[in-house]
Every structure is written in structure tokens, then in C-alpha cells.
Amino acid sequence: MKRFARGIALLTTFVLGTLLCVGSGRAEESPLGGWNILRSDYESHSPLDFVSYEWVYFMIHDFDGRFVGMVAYILGNPRGKLGELDVVIPNGGSVAVSGSIDAGPTISDFVSFGLDDTFASAQEKRFEGEQPATGYYGILTPMPGGGPQGEDAFHLEGRTEHFEWDLVAIEAWRERFAVPGDPQDEPPFTGVQGTDVGVVFPREEVFTVTSPWPRTSVTGSVVSLPTGRAVEVDAKGYLEDSFGRYLLAADGWDFVVFSSDEEEEGVAFVLQTYHRSRKLDFMDISFEDEGVIKNVRFLAQRQELGWRHPSFSFDSRARQCVPNDWIVVGQNDEYRVEFEASIGEHQAPLLSNTALATRVMFIQEQFPTITRGIVTRVASGEIVASFSGQAGGEFALRKSVLPWRSQSDCQCWGSWYFSMPLP
Asked: Alpha-carbon distance 27 to 243, whole Å?
């Protein structure tokens, strides 16, 4: 497949984190451009360069429910600092895939390729990685003008233990997300940088969450390798590209992303929260108010955003308590957003023993359903938009030192640590 070559090392590794570190980002540069952590303007001279990583994360929710999942390509420590020692995430490239086919069980695979069997580029968002011994691989190919209407596109390919995929993703609802928000704020659906994620090295740890395509259209096929079942995919989705230096095993995140099946009178939002950060606690939402597109950002720092998980339970695979549902409220002077979401059993952890940090943490891929969502005017209480349907998200954290915890223990612990007062 590919060898590690060409000057600057390049690779990827999604591992824990996805997600969630999320915010969104309508960067002026095309998302087809090079990997951020390989570019000349990235601070590779930092003493924490060995914890540099980036993931390119695609959410994929088939309209008919045939495949509900995600695929991510990850690059970690591309310059090979500290030699062969895998510290935060596996060195080089990795691929992560999670999901359910035809309403079957949710399954997650994480495969690392190492530095020598990964190729990535500083000039374009290209990625190729392979495990020669297993035949597992991941390929991400940027296609400028390669979409069905001549738009930019990504070609996603790969094979892991449980899945094989061949998909094309393009941007959707482009004009909608270009509508400006409140001019006093950072524009909604733009990148957010967390300079407060650091626990051990606060000045050196910086992580940026962007969503260059908050809504995507994804077509192609996904195969369940254990059963041989192949499904044709026609899906809505989401693209995130997040990167930086971040000792993720000392922290974690909790997020959910959604967009309605139909654009007309539909709703889309990105909710990102990091356990220690406040700068990365935000919700961007797009909706229509009497035919006019409104894009709004709610910030926890301004007491505009709150959330809680009414139910937690112990997941023996993740070896930790994980949330089973959401209650979220965002409110500013003009609008109030409320939604409830159910996760239940529609979740499974991404696990890796390759790196020191990933041995002690997990990333729980979650596929919640928004059961009730409304947007109201604060002044009148009038409902201006409502929404429900399939969403996606993640919960990342360290594993527990205990082999098991009761539901009441999980609930008490989770309610204390993973919530923010509702406005």
C-alpha cells in the first residue's frame, strides 16, 4: 500500500477523541487542503509536539436507517518525536469506524498503521494507511470539483475487522451556514480554539475544533464483513477537522451533532463540551424564523448554555460509566433552545492498547435520537422551530479503576461531574 516517505512524516490516528472536541468551523480555506499539523505554520517546535494529532471525522446517517455510523482518519505525532514511544495516541495514521447496519448492534473498530505504513500530506487532505499483516486499510482522497455537481468532495475507503466502506462525501446546505450571526460574537459555525484544555502543560496545550462542512451528503456502500451484508448508503452527515496538542487522557469531551432530514424549515446544531475547558463549551444552531435563516452561538462562559444527563450506566467494554441521554438548554436575550435525546444501547467504545494514554481511556461513539427539540422566542414564548430525529456524538474519558459500578453510583458520579446549570 503506502510506505512512509517524503520528507515530513505524515500520518494519522483518530483514537479517542472525536468528536467531541467539536466546535465548528467555516474556515475560508478548503477542507481539502493539507493536514493542519503538517503545515509550515503549525508550531512543530513545541516541546509537546509528540502529542500533536488531528482527526478528520465523518458522521454518516442513512435516511432509511440502513447504516448509522461514522468514519474518522487520524494522524498522530507525524514527526516521530520520542522515537518509537507511542504516548497520547498511536504514532502515525489510524482509522476509526463505528456504527450499526440494518438496526443491528453498534460496533466500533480502531486500527493503527504506524509511521512506516502511513502517508499524509501538508498540501492536501490525503491519507493512506495499511496493516500489511491483516489487510486492514484506510484511504481518504480529496477530489477538487469531483462531486456530482462539480463541487469539492472526499472519497472515503477502508476495511477493518467488521466493516468495509466506499463512500463519497460533499458539502450540503452551504448557503445556509454562510448566513452571519450576531456581529458582536464569533460567527456561528466557525472554528473554536481551546487554550484552556491543558492540565499538565497548560501553556503548551492548545486544541482547535472546526466543522468545515456542518452538513454533508454521503453516498456509497458499507459492508458488514462478518455477515457479508452490503448496504447502499444515501445519508446526511457532518465533517469535523480538529487538531492541536492535547493530553487527552487527562481530560475528555462530551458532544452531540444533529441536522434535520430536510433543509426546508429544518434545524442543524453542533454542541461541543470538554470536561475541563470552558472555551470549548458551546452550541451553534441554525433554524428558520418566519422564513429567515438564523444562525446562533450559545456559550457556557456567558451562562447561555447548560446540559445534564438524566441517566448513566456502567459499560463493561469501556470500563466506565457512560451517559444514556441528554437534556440541553441554550438561551440568550432573543431565543431559547431546548432538546432531549435518548442514547440507550446505541453506543460502543473505540479502544486501543497501542499508546500509553489510549490504554487508560476510551471514546464512546454514540448515536442518540432527538426525541423532542424546540426553539422559542424568549419575549413571547412562541415556538418558531421544532426538530427530532437521528443524531451522533461522543463521550470520552479515562477508564475506571473499578471493575464495576452500580447504576446509582454511576448516576451520582455522572450528574456531579458532567453537567452545567440550565439557563
From this structure: 14
Print burial letters for 132-165: b (CB count within 10 Å at least 16), e (below 16).
Answer: eeeebbbbbbbeeebbeeeebbbebbbbbebbbb
Residue with more model confidence, 7 or 99 = 99
Instruction: Look at residue 250 in the predicted model and tell me its pLDDT.
Output: 84
Closest by CA to 185, choosing from 299, 273, 21, 27, is 299
Contacts of 277 (CB under 8 A, 6+ apart): 194, 196, 197, 251
Assess whether pLDDT exceeds 70 at residue 22.
no
DSSP 135-188: TEEEEEEEETT-STTS--EEEEEEE-SSEEEEEEEEE-SHHHHTS---TTSPPT
The amino acid occupying position 410 is C
| pLDDT at residue 138 greater than cutoff 90 | yes
β partners of residue 345: none
Q: How distant is the alpha carbon of residue 119 from its chain centre?
A: 22
Nearest to 228 by CA among 167, 166, 133, 163: 163
Nearest to 317 by CA among 351, 345, 344: 351
Indicate the SS3 state at residue 232: strand
**Residue 21 — very low, low, confident or very high, per pLDDT cuts 50/70/90?**
very low
327: β partners = 308, 340
For 213, the grid coordinates are: 462542512
Residues in the chain: 423
In Å, what is the CA distance from 24 to each residue of 63, 169, 214, 275? Answer: 23, 17, 7, 18
Q: What is the mean pLDDT of residues 289-297?
A: 95
CA distance 182 to 185: 6
pLDDT in tens, 34-69: 999 999 999 999 999 999 999 999 999 999 999 999
**Neighbouring residues of 135: CB distance < 8 A, sequence distance ≥ 6:** 159
Does residue 1 or residue 188 have the better pLDDT?
188
